Protein backbone atom coordinates (compact mmCIF):
# COMPACT_ATOMS: atom_id res chain seq x y z
CA UNK A 1 0.00 0.00 0.00
CA UNK A 2 1.33 3.41 -0.97
CA UNK A 3 1.45 5.96 1.83
CA UNK A 4 1.39 9.72 1.26
CA UNK A 5 4.61 11.66 1.72
CA UNK A 6 2.54 14.65 2.79
CA UNK A 7 -0.92 15.13 4.26
CA UNK A 8 -3.59 13.14 2.37
CA UNK A 9 -5.36 15.05 -0.42
CA UNK A 10 -8.70 14.82 1.38
CA UNK A 11 -7.31 15.95 4.75
CA UNK A 12 -9.72 18.30 6.55
CA UNK A 13 -8.30 21.60 7.84
CA UNK A 14 -10.21 23.98 10.07
CA UNK A 15 -10.85 25.34 13.52
CA UNK A 16 -12.87 24.58 16.63
CA UNK A 17 -15.22 26.45 18.97
CA UNK A 18 -17.92 25.80 21.58
CA UNK A 19 -21.34 27.42 21.79
CA UNK A 20 -21.01 28.43 25.42
CA UNK A 21 -17.72 30.23 24.77
CA UNK A 22 -18.54 32.23 21.67
CA UNK A 23 -22.22 32.35 20.72
CA UNK A 24 -23.50 34.74 23.37
CA UNK A 25 -27.24 35.56 23.15
CA UNK A 26 -27.64 33.40 26.24
CA UNK A 27 -31.34 34.16 26.75
CA UNK A 28 -32.39 34.98 23.19
CA UNK A 29 -35.10 33.24 21.13
CA UNK A 30 -36.24 30.90 23.87
CA UNK A 31 -32.85 29.63 25.01
CA UNK A 32 -32.75 28.35 28.60
CA UNK A 33 -29.85 28.63 31.09
CA UNK A 34 -27.02 26.11 30.90
CA UNK A 35 -24.52 25.10 33.57
CA UNK A 36 -22.06 27.63 32.10
CA UNK A 37 -24.45 30.58 32.05
CA UNK A 38 -24.35 30.91 35.83
CA UNK A 39 -20.55 31.10 36.04
CA UNK A 40 -18.81 34.43 36.62
CA UNK A 41 -15.19 35.10 35.80
CA UNK A 42 -12.90 33.08 38.03
CA UNK A 43 -10.98 34.19 41.09
CA UNK A 44 -7.75 33.36 39.27
CA UNK A 45 -8.75 35.75 36.50
CA UNK A 46 -9.41 38.54 38.99
CA UNK A 47 -6.01 38.01 40.57
CA UNK A 48 -4.22 38.07 37.21
CA UNK A 49 -6.04 41.05 35.76
CA UNK A 50 -7.25 44.07 37.69
CA UNK A 51 -10.68 45.66 37.36
CA UNK A 52 -12.57 42.60 36.16
CA UNK A 53 -15.42 42.54 38.65
CA UNK A 54 -18.25 40.01 38.57
CA UNK A 55 -19.86 39.43 35.23
CA UNK A 56 -20.96 36.45 33.16
CA UNK A 57 -18.63 36.06 30.16
CA UNK A 58 -20.76 33.46 28.35
CA UNK A 59 -23.78 35.77 28.23
CA UNK A 60 -22.20 37.73 25.37
CA UNK A 61 -19.26 35.53 24.36
CA UNK A 62 -18.11 37.10 21.10
CA UNK A 63 -21.68 37.36 19.77
CA UNK A 64 -21.34 34.73 17.05
CA UNK A 65 -25.11 34.41 17.29
CA UNK A 66 -25.50 37.72 15.47
CA UNK A 67 -22.17 37.76 13.59
CA UNK A 68 -22.02 34.21 12.25
CA UNK A 69 -22.03 35.31 8.60
CA UNK A 70 -19.04 37.60 9.13
CA UNK A 71 -17.12 34.94 11.04
CA UNK A 72 -17.86 32.11 8.63
CA UNK A 73 -16.72 34.33 5.76
CA UNK A 74 -13.40 34.77 7.57
CA UNK A 75 -13.09 31.01 8.07
CA UNK A 76 -13.76 30.54 4.37
CA UNK A 77 -11.10 33.12 3.53
CA UNK A 78 -8.60 31.04 5.48
CA UNK A 79 -9.68 28.03 3.43
CA UNK A 80 -11.39 25.93 6.09
CA UNK A 81 -12.78 22.63 4.84
CA UNK A 82 -14.18 21.76 8.29
CA UNK A 83 -15.45 23.79 11.25
CA UNK A 84 -16.08 22.31 14.66
CA UNK A 85 -18.91 23.86 16.66
CA UNK A 86 -21.33 22.68 19.30
CA UNK A 87 -25.07 23.00 19.53
CA UNK A 88 -26.32 24.58 22.73
CA UNK A 89 -28.66 22.00 24.26
CA UNK A 90 -30.74 24.76 25.86
CA UNK A 91 -31.41 26.43 22.50
CA UNK A 92 -33.18 23.26 21.38
CA UNK A 93 -34.65 22.05 24.69
CA UNK A 94 -34.49 24.99 27.15
CA UNK A 95 -35.00 22.80 30.24
CA UNK A 96 -33.77 19.58 28.68
CA UNK A 97 -36.79 17.43 29.48
CA UNK A 98 -39.34 18.85 27.02
CA UNK A 99 -40.94 16.60 24.44
CA UNK A 100 -41.03 19.26 21.70
CA UNK A 101 -38.00 21.30 20.58
CA UNK A 102 -37.67 25.07 20.37
CA UNK A 103 -38.06 25.94 16.69
CA UNK A 104 -36.17 29.23 16.98
CA UNK A 105 -33.09 27.37 18.21
CA UNK A 106 -33.27 24.79 15.45
CA UNK A 107 -33.70 27.55 12.86
CA UNK A 108 -30.56 29.34 14.05
CA UNK A 109 -28.36 26.32 13.39
CA UNK A 110 -30.08 25.80 10.04
CA UNK A 111 -28.79 29.23 9.09
CA UNK A 112 -25.31 28.46 10.37
CA UNK A 113 -25.09 25.16 8.48
CA UNK A 114 -26.46 26.76 5.32
CA UNK A 115 -23.84 29.47 5.57
CA UNK A 116 -21.08 26.89 6.02
CA UNK A 117 -22.47 24.94 3.08
CA UNK A 118 -22.31 28.03 0.90
CA UNK A 119 -18.52 27.95 1.29
CA UNK A 120 -18.15 24.19 1.15
CA UNK A 121 -17.17 23.93 4.82
CA UNK A 122 -18.04 20.63 6.51
CA UNK A 123 -19.59 21.03 9.98
CA UNK A 124 -18.18 18.90 12.79
CA UNK A 125 -20.83 19.11 15.49
CA UNK A 126 -20.37 18.38 19.17
CA UNK A 127 -23.77 17.42 20.54
CA UNK A 128 -22.93 18.19 24.18
CA UNK A 129 -20.01 20.50 24.95
CA UNK A 130 -20.30 21.45 28.65
CA UNK A 131 -23.69 23.04 27.91
CA UNK A 132 -26.17 20.78 29.71
CA UNK A 133 -29.34 22.52 30.89
CA UNK A 134 -29.16 23.86 34.43
CA UNK A 135 -32.70 22.57 34.92
CA UNK A 136 -31.47 19.00 34.57
CA UNK A 137 -28.97 19.60 37.35
CA UNK A 138 -31.45 21.31 39.68
CA UNK A 139 -34.39 18.95 39.15
CA UNK A 140 -32.79 15.63 38.23
CA UNK A 141 -29.34 15.73 39.83
CA UNK A 142 -27.47 15.67 36.54
CA UNK A 143 -26.11 12.60 34.79
CA UNK A 144 -26.25 10.33 37.81
CA UNK A 145 -29.97 10.17 37.01
CA UNK A 146 -30.77 7.53 34.37
CA UNK A 147 -33.55 9.72 32.97
CA UNK A 148 -30.93 11.94 31.33
CA UNK A 149 -30.17 9.14 28.88
CA UNK A 150 -33.63 9.52 27.38
CA UNK A 151 -33.46 13.32 27.39
CA UNK A 152 -30.07 13.28 25.63
CA UNK A 153 -31.12 10.71 23.03
CA UNK A 154 -34.24 12.77 22.25
CA UNK A 155 -32.01 15.85 21.83
CA UNK A 156 -29.52 14.01 19.60
CA UNK A 157 -32.24 12.38 17.51
CA UNK A 158 -33.85 15.77 16.95
CA UNK A 159 -30.55 17.05 15.59
CA UNK A 160 -29.96 14.04 13.35
CA UNK A 161 -33.42 14.37 11.83
CA UNK A 162 -33.35 18.14 11.41
CA UNK A 163 -29.86 18.43 9.95
CA UNK A 164 -29.83 15.30 7.80
CA UNK A 165 -27.85 16.13 4.66
CA UNK A 166 -26.26 19.18 6.30
CA UNK A 167 -24.11 17.51 8.96
CA UNK A 168 -22.20 14.25 8.57
CA UNK A 169 -19.61 14.37 11.37
CA UNK A 170 -20.83 14.27 14.99
CA UNK A 171 -19.16 14.06 18.40
CA UNK A 172 -21.37 12.79 21.22
CA UNK A 173 -19.69 14.40 24.27
CA UNK A 174 -16.85 16.89 24.52
CA UNK A 175 -13.85 15.66 26.53
CA UNK A 176 -15.95 13.01 28.27
CA UNK A 177 -13.04 12.16 30.58
CA UNK A 178 -13.19 15.67 32.07
CA UNK A 179 -15.77 14.26 34.48
CA UNK A 180 -12.76 13.26 36.56
CA UNK A 181 -11.48 16.85 36.68
CA UNK A 182 -14.43 19.24 36.31
CA UNK A 183 -17.55 17.21 37.13
CA UNK A 184 -19.72 20.25 37.81
CA UNK A 185 -19.88 21.16 34.12
CA UNK A 186 -19.25 17.71 32.67
CA UNK A 187 -21.80 15.55 34.47
CA UNK A 188 -23.64 18.11 36.64
CA UNK A 189 -23.77 15.65 39.53
CA UNK A 190 -22.53 15.82 43.09
CA UNK A 191 -22.55 13.15 45.76
CA UNK A 192 -25.28 13.47 48.36
CA UNK A 193 -24.56 12.78 52.01
CA UNK A 194 -23.58 9.15 52.41
CA UNK A 195 -22.77 8.65 48.73
CA UNK A 196 -19.33 7.76 47.40
CA UNK A 197 -18.30 10.67 45.10
CA UNK A 198 -16.25 8.38 42.86
CA UNK A 199 -19.13 5.95 42.52
CA UNK A 200 -21.47 8.82 41.62
CA UNK A 201 -19.01 9.97 38.94
CA UNK A 202 -18.70 6.55 37.35
CA UNK A 203 -22.47 6.03 37.51
CA UNK A 204 -22.97 9.32 35.66
CA UNK A 205 -20.33 8.30 33.12
CA UNK A 206 -22.05 4.96 32.57
CA UNK A 207 -25.20 6.84 31.67
CA UNK A 208 -23.21 9.01 29.24
CA UNK A 209 -21.65 5.94 27.63
CA UNK A 210 -25.07 4.37 27.12
CA UNK A 211 -26.47 7.66 25.82
CA UNK A 212 -23.58 7.97 23.36
CA UNK A 213 -24.13 4.43 22.06
CA UNK A 214 -27.88 4.94 21.69
CA UNK A 215 -27.29 8.23 19.90
CA UNK A 216 -24.91 6.42 17.53
CA UNK A 217 -27.65 3.88 16.88
CA UNK A 218 -30.17 6.62 16.02
CA UNK A 219 -27.69 8.50 13.86
CA UNK A 220 -27.09 5.42 11.70
CA UNK A 221 -30.79 4.64 11.42
CA UNK A 222 -31.62 8.18 10.31
CA UNK A 223 -28.68 8.52 7.91
CA UNK A 224 -26.25 5.61 7.38
CA UNK A 225 -23.63 8.06 6.09
CA UNK A 226 -23.39 9.75 9.50
CA UNK A 227 -19.97 9.42 11.12
CA UNK A 228 -19.96 9.46 14.92
CA UNK A 229 -16.93 10.07 17.07
CA UNK A 230 -16.05 10.14 20.74
CA UNK A 231 -13.93 12.98 22.12
CA UNK A 232 -11.47 12.96 25.00
CA UNK A 233 -8.91 15.31 26.48
CA UNK A 234 -5.55 13.69 25.84
CA UNK A 235 -2.16 14.34 27.36
CA UNK A 236 0.42 11.56 27.30
CA UNK A 237 1.95 10.93 30.70
CA UNK A 238 5.69 10.30 30.90
CA UNK A 239 7.45 8.69 33.88
CA UNK A 240 9.47 11.37 35.64
CA UNK A 241 12.39 8.94 35.87
CA UNK A 242 13.36 5.40 34.79
CA UNK A 243 12.49 4.25 38.30
CA UNK A 244 10.12 1.27 37.87
CA UNK A 245 7.60 2.79 40.28
CA UNK A 246 7.47 5.97 38.19
CA UNK A 247 7.01 3.97 34.99
CA UNK A 248 4.15 1.98 36.51
CA UNK A 249 2.50 5.15 37.87
CA UNK A 250 2.67 6.76 34.43
CA UNK A 251 1.20 3.63 32.85
CA UNK A 252 -1.72 3.69 35.31
CA UNK A 253 -2.48 7.32 34.45
CA UNK A 254 -2.39 6.50 30.75
CA UNK A 255 -4.88 3.68 31.31
CA UNK A 256 -7.24 6.09 33.08
CA UNK A 257 -7.66 7.95 29.77
CA UNK A 258 -7.95 4.81 27.70
CA UNK A 259 -10.87 3.61 29.81
CA UNK A 260 -13.07 6.19 28.07
CA UNK A 261 -12.02 5.21 24.56
CA UNK A 262 -12.08 1.49 25.38
CA UNK A 263 -15.77 1.69 26.27
CA UNK A 264 -16.75 3.83 23.29
CA UNK A 265 -14.58 2.18 20.62
CA UNK A 266 -14.22 -1.42 21.81
CA UNK A 267 -17.69 -1.45 23.32
CA UNK A 268 -16.96 -2.86 26.77
CA UNK A 269 -15.46 -2.03 30.16
CA UNK A 270 -11.80 -3.09 30.29
CA UNK A 271 -10.73 -5.65 32.87
CA UNK A 272 -8.41 -3.22 34.65
CA UNK A 273 -11.32 -0.84 35.34
CA UNK A 274 -13.54 -3.68 36.57
CA UNK A 275 -10.71 -4.71 38.90
CA UNK A 276 -10.46 -1.11 40.12
CA UNK A 277 -14.20 -1.01 40.83
CA UNK A 278 -13.90 -4.21 42.86
CA UNK A 279 -10.92 -2.90 44.82
CA UNK A 280 -12.66 0.40 45.62
CA UNK A 281 -16.07 -1.19 46.30
CA UNK A 282 -17.64 0.84 43.48
CA UNK A 283 -20.95 -0.49 42.22
CA UNK A 284 -22.38 0.70 38.91
CA UNK A 285 -26.11 0.20 38.39
CA UNK A 286 -26.59 -0.98 34.82
CA UNK A 287 -29.89 -1.90 33.26
CA UNK A 288 -30.40 -5.17 31.44
CA UNK A 289 -29.17 -4.73 27.90
CA UNK A 290 -26.61 -2.01 28.61
CA UNK A 291 -23.67 -4.28 27.80
CA UNK A 292 -25.26 -5.24 24.50
CA UNK A 293 -25.94 -1.58 23.65
CA UNK A 294 -22.31 -0.59 24.26
CA UNK A 295 -21.06 -3.52 22.19
CA UNK A 296 -23.47 -2.97 19.29
CA UNK A 297 -22.95 0.76 18.71
CA UNK A 298 -19.30 1.82 18.99
CA UNK A 299 -18.13 5.09 17.49
CA UNK A 300 -16.57 5.35 14.02
CA UNK A 301 -13.57 7.49 14.97
CA UNK A 302 -11.71 9.02 17.90
CA UNK A 303 -11.26 12.76 18.29
CA UNK A 304 -9.24 14.40 21.00
CA UNK A 305 -7.84 17.65 22.33
CA UNK A 306 -4.10 18.00 22.70
CA UNK A 307 -2.37 20.95 24.32
CA UNK A 308 0.43 19.51 26.42
CA UNK A 309 1.86 16.40 28.01
CA UNK A 310 2.20 15.43 31.65
CA UNK A 311 4.60 13.56 33.87
CA UNK A 312 4.11 11.17 36.77
CA UNK A 313 6.10 10.12 39.80
CA UNK A 314 5.35 7.51 42.45
CA UNK A 315 6.50 10.03 45.04
CA UNK A 316 5.10 13.49 44.35
CA UNK A 317 7.73 16.21 43.99
CA UNK A 318 5.52 19.20 44.81
CA UNK A 319 6.35 20.79 41.45
CA UNK A 320 3.16 20.77 39.42
CA UNK A 321 2.12 21.43 35.84
CA UNK A 322 -1.48 22.30 34.98
CA UNK A 323 -2.50 21.68 31.39
CA UNK A 324 -6.18 21.80 30.41
CA UNK A 325 -7.30 21.07 34.00
CA UNK A 326 -5.07 17.98 34.16
CA UNK A 327 -2.50 18.40 36.93
CA UNK A 328 0.73 16.43 36.73
CA UNK A 329 4.34 16.57 37.81
CA UNK A 330 6.38 19.30 36.16
CA UNK A 331 8.58 18.06 33.31
CA UNK A 332 11.97 19.82 33.58
CA UNK A 333 12.69 19.25 29.88
CA UNK A 334 9.78 21.28 28.53
CA UNK A 335 9.04 24.97 28.18
CA UNK A 336 5.67 26.31 29.30
CA UNK A 337 3.08 28.76 28.02
CA UNK A 338 2.11 31.95 29.84
CA UNK A 339 -0.49 29.86 31.66
CA UNK A 340 1.99 27.18 32.71
CA UNK A 341 0.98 24.54 30.16
CA UNK A 342 3.90 22.37 29.00
CA UNK A 343 4.70 22.79 25.30
CA UNK A 344 5.47 19.41 23.76
CA UNK A 345 4.92 18.94 19.99
CA UNK A 346 6.44 15.45 20.06
CA UNK A 347 3.81 14.54 22.63
CA UNK A 348 1.17 15.00 19.94
CA UNK A 349 2.93 12.49 17.68
CA UNK A 350 3.19 10.15 20.66
CA UNK A 351 -0.55 10.53 21.35
CA UNK A 352 -1.48 9.84 17.74
CA UNK A 353 0.64 6.69 17.68
CA UNK A 354 -0.70 5.45 21.00
CA UNK A 355 -4.34 5.89 20.04
CA UNK A 356 -4.04 4.55 16.50
CA UNK A 357 -1.97 1.52 17.44
CA UNK A 358 -4.44 0.64 20.20
CA UNK A 359 -7.70 1.17 18.29
CA UNK A 360 -7.02 1.17 14.52
CA UNK A 361 -9.79 3.68 13.77
CA UNK A 362 -9.46 7.11 12.11
CA UNK A 363 -8.38 9.99 14.33
CA UNK A 364 -9.14 13.69 14.46
CA UNK A 365 -7.21 16.33 16.40
CA UNK A 366 -10.10 18.63 17.23
CA UNK A 367 -8.44 20.98 19.73
CA UNK A 368 -4.87 22.24 19.76
CA UNK A 369 -3.45 25.70 20.21
CA UNK A 370 -1.56 28.22 22.29
CA UNK A 371 -3.30 30.51 24.73
CA UNK A 372 -1.41 33.79 24.88
CA UNK A 373 -1.83 37.51 25.48
CA UNK A 374 -1.92 39.34 22.14
CA UNK A 375 -0.96 42.98 21.76
CA UNK A 376 -2.47 45.18 19.06
CA UNK A 377 0.26 47.44 17.63
CA UNK A 378 -0.71 49.93 14.92
CA UNK A 379 -3.78 47.88 14.10
CA UNK A 380 -1.84 44.63 13.70
CA UNK A 381 -1.08 41.56 15.81
CA UNK A 382 2.27 39.88 15.26
CA UNK A 383 1.74 36.49 16.92
CA UNK A 384 4.90 34.69 15.85
CA UNK A 385 4.76 32.70 19.10
CA UNK A 386 1.44 31.15 18.06
CA UNK A 387 2.72 30.39 14.57
CA UNK A 388 5.79 28.68 16.02
CA UNK A 389 3.66 26.54 18.34
CA UNK A 390 1.24 25.49 15.60
CA UNK A 391 4.01 24.86 13.07
CA UNK A 392 5.72 22.37 15.37
CA UNK A 393 2.47 20.57 16.15
CA UNK A 394 1.46 20.34 12.49
CA UNK A 395 4.91 18.92 11.73
CA UNK A 396 4.30 16.32 14.44
CA UNK A 397 0.98 15.36 12.81
CA UNK A 398 2.65 15.10 9.42
CA UNK A 399 5.34 12.79 10.86
CA UNK A 400 2.69 10.62 12.48
CA UNK A 401 0.94 10.23 9.13
CA UNK A 402 3.97 9.87 6.87
CA UNK A 403 6.51 8.10 9.08
CA UNK A 404 4.24 6.18 11.43
CA UNK A 405 1.24 5.30 9.24
CA UNK A 406 -1.37 6.92 11.48
CA UNK A 407 -4.80 7.44 9.90
CA UNK A 408 -5.36 11.09 10.85
CA UNK A 409 -8.18 12.67 8.86
CA UNK A 410 -8.74 16.14 10.32
CA UNK A 411 -7.24 19.00 12.33
CA UNK A 412 -9.29 21.78 13.90
CA UNK A 413 -7.19 24.18 15.95
CA UNK A 414 -8.82 25.39 19.13
CA UNK A 415 -10.37 28.83 19.33
CA UNK A 416 -9.79 29.67 15.67
CA UNK A 417 -11.42 32.97 16.59
CA UNK A 418 -10.82 34.46 20.05
CA UNK A 419 -13.41 33.31 22.56
CA UNK A 420 -14.02 33.11 26.30
CA UNK A 421 -11.61 30.83 28.15
CA UNK A 422 -13.42 27.82 29.55
CA UNK A 423 -11.03 27.54 32.48
CA UNK A 424 -11.01 31.12 33.73
CA UNK A 425 -13.71 33.06 31.91
CA UNK A 426 -11.22 35.55 30.53
CA UNK A 427 -10.66 36.98 27.06
CA UNK A 428 -6.97 37.81 27.55
CA UNK A 429 -6.07 34.16 27.05
CA UNK A 430 -6.41 34.15 23.28
CA UNK A 431 -6.02 31.25 20.86
CA UNK A 432 -7.48 32.59 17.65
CA UNK A 433 -6.28 33.52 14.19
CA UNK A 434 -8.88 36.28 14.45
CA UNK A 435 -8.70 38.85 17.25
CA UNK A 436 -11.97 39.92 18.85
CA UNK A 437 -12.06 43.30 20.59
CA UNK A 438 -13.52 42.16 23.88
CA UNK A 439 -11.67 42.54 27.16
CA UNK A 440 -11.74 40.82 30.53
CA UNK A 441 -14.14 43.34 32.03
CA UNK A 442 -16.60 42.88 29.17
CA UNK A 443 -15.68 46.08 27.37
CA UNK A 444 -14.79 46.31 23.68
CA UNK A 445 -16.38 46.78 20.28
CA UNK A 446 -16.39 43.06 19.36
CA UNK A 447 -14.79 44.03 16.05
CA UNK A 448 -12.74 41.33 14.32
CA UNK A 449 -9.09 41.74 13.30
CA UNK A 450 -6.90 39.28 11.38
CA UNK A 451 -3.66 38.31 13.13
CA UNK A 452 -0.44 37.37 11.35
CA UNK A 453 -1.35 33.75 12.09
CA UNK A 454 -4.51 34.18 9.98
CA UNK A 455 -2.44 34.62 6.84
CA UNK A 456 0.02 31.92 7.88
CA UNK A 457 -2.73 29.34 8.44
CA UNK A 458 -4.30 30.32 5.11
CA UNK A 459 -1.03 29.38 3.40
CA UNK A 460 -0.79 26.14 5.38
CA UNK A 461 -4.25 25.09 4.23
CA UNK A 462 -3.73 26.19 0.62
CA UNK A 463 -0.54 24.08 0.48
CA UNK A 464 -2.17 21.14 2.34
CA UNK A 465 0.41 21.42 5.08
CA UNK A 466 3.53 21.65 2.95
CA UNK A 467 4.08 25.40 3.45
CA UNK A 468 4.75 25.92 7.14
CA UNK A 469 7.23 28.81 7.15
TrEMBL record:
<dbReference type="GO" id="GO:0005829">
    <property type="term" value="C:cytosol"/>
</dbReference>
<dbReference type="Pfam" id="PF00232">
    <property type="entry name" value="Glyco_hydro_1"/>
</dbReference>
<dbReference type="InterPro" id="IPR017853">
    <property type="entry name" value="GH"/>
</dbReference>
<keyword id="KW-0378">Hydrolase</keyword>
<dbReference type="GO" id="GO:0008422">
    <property type="term" value="F:beta-glucosidase activity"/>
</dbReference>
<dbReference type="InterPro" id="IPR001360">
    <property type="entry name" value="Glyco_hydro_1"/>
</dbReference>
<dbReference type="InterPro" id="IPR033132">
    <property type="entry name" value="GH_1_N_CS"/>
</dbReference>
<keyword id="KW-0326">Glycosidase</keyword>
<protein>
    <submittedName>
        <fullName>6-phospho-beta-glucosidase</fullName>
    </submittedName>
</protein>
<dbReference type="GO" id="GO:0016052">
    <property type="term" value="P:carbohydrate catabolic process"/>
</dbReference>
<comment type="similarity">
    <text>Belongs to the glycosyl hydrolase 1 family.</text>
</comment>
Amino acid sequence: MNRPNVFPEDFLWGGATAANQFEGAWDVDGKGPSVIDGLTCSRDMKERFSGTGDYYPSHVGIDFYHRYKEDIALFAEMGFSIFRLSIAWTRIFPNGDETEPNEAGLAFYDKVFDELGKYGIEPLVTISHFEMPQYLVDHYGGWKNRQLVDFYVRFATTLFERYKGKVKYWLTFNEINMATFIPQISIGSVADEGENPEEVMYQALHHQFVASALATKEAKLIDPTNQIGCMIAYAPVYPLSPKPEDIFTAMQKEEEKHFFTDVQVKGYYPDNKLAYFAEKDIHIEAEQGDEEILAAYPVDFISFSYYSSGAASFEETGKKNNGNAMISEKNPYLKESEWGWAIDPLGLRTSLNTLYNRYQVPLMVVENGLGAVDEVVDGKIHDDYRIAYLREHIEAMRDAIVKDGVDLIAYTSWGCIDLVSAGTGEMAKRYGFIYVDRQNDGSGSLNRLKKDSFYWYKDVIASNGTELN
